[in-house]
Amino acid sequence: MIMNIIFFATMYPIVFIMLFLFSTQNKYENGRLFAVNMKKEWIKDATVADIRQKFKKEMRYYAILLAIVPFVSLLTSHMSIQLTIWMFWLLAAIFLLSLPIMRANHRLKTWKTQNHLYEDRQPEHYVELKQAGSVRKVRFLPFFLPNIISIASALLLLPKSSGLGISCLIGASCGLVFWLAAVWIDRQPVSVISTDSDVNINYARAKKNLWKNFWLISCWLNTALILFLEILTLSARHMGICSIAGMIVYTLLLLLLCIFCMIKLKKIDRSYAQKRNLTSDENDDRNWIGGILYYNPSDPHTMVEQRVGIGTTVNMATSLGKGLTIFSAIMMLSCPLLCIWLIQEEFTPIDLVIQNHTLCAQHLKTDYQIPLSEIKDPTLLTASDLPDWTRTYGTSMDTLEKGTFTISGGEDVKVFLNPENDAFIQFSANGKTYYMGGADDAQTTQIYKKLRSR
């Protein structure tokens, strides 16, 4: 249930954000409709009106479908099945909500072609030279402060809890990624939208300043989360629940920040709509597949401004663009493999056995092999005796917890058990504390008796 709450709080809003983002393509803005260059008088054409109506109908149908599907996850208590439903739902949302735009884009381009509305002249590349390199908004110190605080906080955790410290260091690296993204966007060439250089430079300043603020706030949110997790190790009794709540709040704040950024970008584009008087090669409809994917062999740029949504997209005709596209496709196709692995994790029972004077904890493989001679002070516990902990790395499901977990106070412990059972063994070995359980209470009790009778 906790996993479903997290998904509904963090992933469910994505479909409405995408719906809002994609639905705006039905409006005539910045000389475009469905990412196709259009003149205002063309909008009144009956065929264009029909294309817009079909788009609304398709978006409404897919939105209702995607809004209902996640509730299917409430019908099962198995976390791996829930995660599988959500992952496929997210992939379906990206695909299905893109379909109406791509169809409308294709229909509009077909209509323009049939009516001979495409210009035959060869589009040109424009480069802004006046103060182009001086349009920079990202400075070193504002981004350095949140990142050094998060890294220092993670390093301070390492002596107390190596597992949580490493996890926080990984989290701190997200702040560095945000910083690099800010620098990369800040160094993008000035977009040429007008013959007036001042217009181009002011347009670039407005957008780069917005992106700078977006990434800087993201860095501080990331730092706040790491500091929150560190405070939990010192004082929180219910560390697991509190850490989950903190990550949910962090994700929701990032989503709200994204929405705010999208709205502000739209306002900037609208304010400069009347000042646009140049069309470059990037703006040729025929170089955009469905208005979403950019493929132009004659354009040497790897990244160009996205037509649908915010930010940039790759030119799939370049070598780097092809590599990034293949990598993205591999990542998306790996999702079903990840789901299969998680289902195996949850539905394969754990097993505790003693072989050759060694305690073996087996699941999909042998996770632990501990010589009996190193096991000290075995104690039989019930579910109410288990401490409150949070996963540092490993697996945490309703029927399986294994790996390194951190308890209140920052101590790392090794866990291998089924939380639905009621009998567990606590012992120490090699300077570490272990909490283990077998496939059922009977097996756990039997292993405990053998450990005590040595």
Distance between the termini: 41 Å
Q: What is the CA-atom radius of gyration, in angstroms?
A: 28 Å
Order of SSEs:
HHEEHHHHHHEEEEHEEEEEEEEEH
The biggest beta sheet, please?
6 strands, mixed
Strand content: 5-15%
Portion of residues within helices: 40-55%
List the strand order in the largest sheet: 10-14-15-13-12-11
Quick summary of this structure?
Helices cover 52% and strands 15% of the residues. It is of the alpha+beta class and 454 residues long. Helix 2 packs parallel to helix 4, helix 4 packs antiparallel against helix 9 (319-347) and helix 7 runs antiparallel to helix 8 (239-271).
Report on this structure.
- 52% of the residues lie in helices and 15% in strands.
- The protein has 10 helices and 15 strands.
- Strand 7 and strand 8 form a beta hairpin.
- The strands form 5 sheets. The protein has a 6-stranded mixed β-sheet with strand order 10-14-15-13-12-11. A 3-stranded antiparallel β-sheet has the order 7-8-9, with helices on one face. A two-stranded antiparallel sheet has the order 1-2.
- The chain is elongated.
- The mean pLDDT is 85.
List the helices and strands and how they pair.
Layout: H1 2-10, H2 12-23, E1 32-33, E2 36-37, H3 46-68, H4 79-114, H5 140-157, H6 162-186, H7 197-235, H8 239-271, E3 288-289, E4 293-294, E5 303-305, E6 312-314, H9 319-347, E7 351-355, E8 358-362, E9 366-371, E10 376-381, E11 389-396, E12 401-407, E13 412-417, E14 424-429, E15 432-436, H10 441-452
Parallel strand pairs: 13-15
Antiparallel strand pairs: 1-2, 3-4, 5-6, 7-8, 8-9, 10-14, 11-12, 12-13, 14-15
